[in-house]
Amino acid sequence: MPVKLLGILLAGAAASIALGVYGRVHDPTGEKPYTLFFSETINLKVWFASAALLFAAIQVLLALRLYDKIHVPRTAPPWLGDAHRLTGIVTFGLTLPVAYQCLWALGFQSTDTRVLLHSLLGCFFFGVFTIKVLAVRTNGLPNWLLPVVGGTVFATLVLIWTTSSVWFWREFGFPSF
Amino acid sequence: MTFKRIVNVIEVVTLVIAIAFVVALFANEPGGSGGAARSGPGYDVYLENCARCHGQDGQGGIGPKLAGGAVVNAFPDEADQIRLVEGGEGTMPSFRGDLSPAQISEVVEYTRSGLK
How far apart are CA A151 and CA A159, in angstroms? Predict the structure, then answer.
């Protein structure tokens, strides 16, 4: 395995483990650090996570166009790569206040299967995201790496969203602002 | 300013925000100077199972406030509170099976007398 690839994978693993350890060691505060313009922190989290998923889906579509897997628009505009990057940045930015509240107020929990899965996926997401960001900026890596890691990031986000926002909708109804 | 430069600026700003969030995780670590008793079996059970929603000192958060007699006001009869902890209700999960009856009694007692 090339040293570069190994280094990137180790960095991602370190990010995931660091978050998991923090979540486990840190005493959950149970507090609501912010609500911004939402009525409740939980509503903020549901909407931010949903918006993040939307931007991530757009990013996947843009990636498919970049890799010529879809042909809409017929001629790829020159700004396509930057638009792809921008949607990724926005996705990441939207996950930050959600992840902070999860880690700081709730910590790594294992009270039931959904919660355990959500905790594990949350830590895994930022590890895979780290791998993707580093892989984009590193030359000489296998061609399959970016699509695989990008797909994994998106799939992980879908699962995180399913185990949180979808669960919230099913349990408590459509969230207000 | 070209689109690429705008994206670069947004990227840097997002990176700074991410770093700020990481710093805040450690900077906002609870100091542990609240008025709640911080020892005993009830406290341990509370910290492990309840604090993440009701706050370390029972000050409330995602779950309602328990400290300052709030839980006694809500449940004058201790048996009602035990039933809620066992069976759950709304966003409050059921702890039957996760906690033994003795642990539930301990933690309920702690919330009623240990959380000032």
Answer: 12
